[in-house]
């Protein structure tokens, strides 16, 4: 009987002092609200002839103490970042310019960071027609190493969007030099992938030029990848 009692006491001591409560709760990604995806933002407050202040809004996410708003000028690829505990933040940005925005969620008890989706929008300017958003390169990701298929090809994939919804074509530039200067194919608005021939052990660079029915164009950033 004494041994059983000692056993119960030992178990109680271990439960109170050495129990494993598991990892701390990780934050969850926020749901974006405004500016809306692939939209023209017309509600900014004028700062001057070239800039306006836009208030970005998102939904609160679980297990989150603070958020970091990131807004990237797609013409220059220059980001603006601001941290806040609220679910909105205001930034002064350039009129008539395409932007990408996203929100990162953090908490004080976890080293994990959760990211929202990335939405594109145009900050309204004086123009009445807009160039397409620069294509967002998807695969292969920049800096990656990939395996070619049995045809000695790699499939390039991207996504595109336009406020006016009048994209006409995508032109893919692909070469071993940066920036890539060789046009390797033209696709229509509904085709956002193109296979290209590659050689093992070679580093390649690629970008996409988007053209709409008005003749407006936009140029993506440059991605690079290496073939095994």
Automatic annotation (TrEMBL):
Superkingdom of origin? Bacteria
Signal sequence segment: 1-18
Listed A to Z, the keywords are:
Signal
Q: What is this protein called?
A: Fibronectin type-III domain-containing protein
Q: Species name for this entry?
A: Flagellimonas okinawensis
Q: What is the lineage of its organism?
A: Bacteria, Pseudomonadati, Bacteroidota, Flavobacteriia, Flavobacteriales
């Amino acid at each position: 009987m004494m041994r059983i009692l000692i056993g119960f006491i030992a178990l109680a001591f271990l439960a109170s002092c050495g129990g494993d409560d598991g990892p701390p709760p990780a934050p969850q990604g926020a749901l974006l609200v405004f500016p809306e995806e692939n939209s023209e933002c017309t509600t900014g407050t004028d700062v001057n002839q070239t800039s306006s202040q836009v208030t970005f809004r998102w939904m609160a996410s679980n297990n989150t103490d603070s958020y970091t708003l990131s807004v990237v000028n797609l013409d220059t690829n220059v980001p603006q970042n601001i941290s806040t505990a609220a679910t909105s933040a205001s930034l002064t940005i350039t009129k008539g310019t395409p932007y990408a925005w996203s929100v990162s969620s953090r908490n004080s008890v976890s080293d994990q960071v959760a990211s929202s989706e990335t939405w594109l929008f145009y900050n309204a300017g004086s123009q009445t027609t807009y160039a397409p958003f620069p294509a967002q390169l998807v695969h292969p990701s920049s800096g990656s190493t990939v395996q070619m298929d049995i045809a000695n090809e790699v499939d390039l994939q991207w996504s595109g969007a336009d406020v006016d919804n009048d994209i006409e074509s995508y032109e893919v530039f692909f070469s071993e030099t940066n920036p890539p200067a060789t046009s390797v194919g033209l696709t229509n608005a509904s085709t956002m992938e193109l296979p290209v021939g590659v050689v093992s052990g070679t580093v390649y660079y690629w970008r996409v030029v988007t053209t709409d029915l008005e003749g407006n164009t936009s140029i993506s950033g440059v991605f690079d990848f290496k073939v095994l």
